[in-house]
UniProtKB/TrEMBL annotation:
NCBIfam families: LptC_YrbK. The gene is lptC. It comes from the Bacteria. Keywords: Membrane, Transmembrane, Transmembrane helix. The keyword Membrane applies. Pfam families: LptC (PF06835). This is LPS export ABC transporter periplasmic protein LptC. The chain crosses the membrane at residues 6-24. The keyword Mitochondrion does not apply. InterPro entries: LipoPS_assembly_LptC-rel, LptC. It comes from Flavobacterium gyeonganense.
Length: 185
């Protein structure tokens, strides 16, 4: 059977187009794979107990059941998906205790994001409870805009928004309610 030249050209063009179409799809998938990067921790540790020191003096103890360190990403951070138990020591070895169900420590900013039933207790007995709290390691300062409950020798107060020093000596709270004894001068 002898087909006219026109049908032969159409057949060749069709075969070429189909080949080109499937070839491009394969290349497109390869290009997508090039731009895809795995997001996984550089370090994965179970049951950690880290002691932080300064000039031979312990400044903090961090315990956690799980630590994921993302040191190789553009904005490095360390994640504690199973919570943390931290004890901070001041220069006179007075302690502040921190419990949280989840935490993320951002290396470049020095900010720690504490989440889920966060509880901070000073050695003097002051207790702050909230659902999310940030800790600025450089300035040793806690802060949140979330609702909180503060219990101390003066009573119990509730509010939304608070910031305070690591040792609870300076406390700035917003929208507070509750019974509190005021110092009279």
């Amino acid at each position: 059977m002898n087909l006219p030249k026109r049908y032969t050209i159409i057949t060749v063009v069709t075969v070429f187009t189909v080949t080109l179409f499937f070839g491009c799809e394969s290349n497109f998938k390869e290009v997508q794979k090039i731009n895809y990067s795995e997001f996984f921790p550089a370090t994965d540790a179970d049951t950690i107990n880290i002691k932080y020191t300064d000039s031979g003096r312990i400044t903090g103890v961090l315990k956690s059941r799980k630590m994921l360190d993302y040191a190789s990403v553009d904005f490095p951070f360390t994640e504690f998906p199973k919570g943390i138990d931290v004890t901070l020591y001041d220069k006179k070895q007075k302690r502040t205790f921190i419990l949280a169900n989840y935490a993320v420590s951002y290396k470049e900013t020095g900010i720690i994001d504490l989440q889920g039933k966060v509880k901070i207790t000073s050695e003097a007995g002051q207790v702050l409870e909230t659902e999310q709290l940030y800790f600025d390691q450089k300035n040793e300062w806690f802060y949140t805009e979330r609702k909180f409950k503060l219990t101390d020798a003066k009573g119990v107060s509730y509010g939304q928004g608070i910031d305070f020093s690591k040792d609870f000596k300076v406390i700035n709270s917003q929208r507070v309610s509750g019974e509190i004894e005021a110092d009279e001068d």
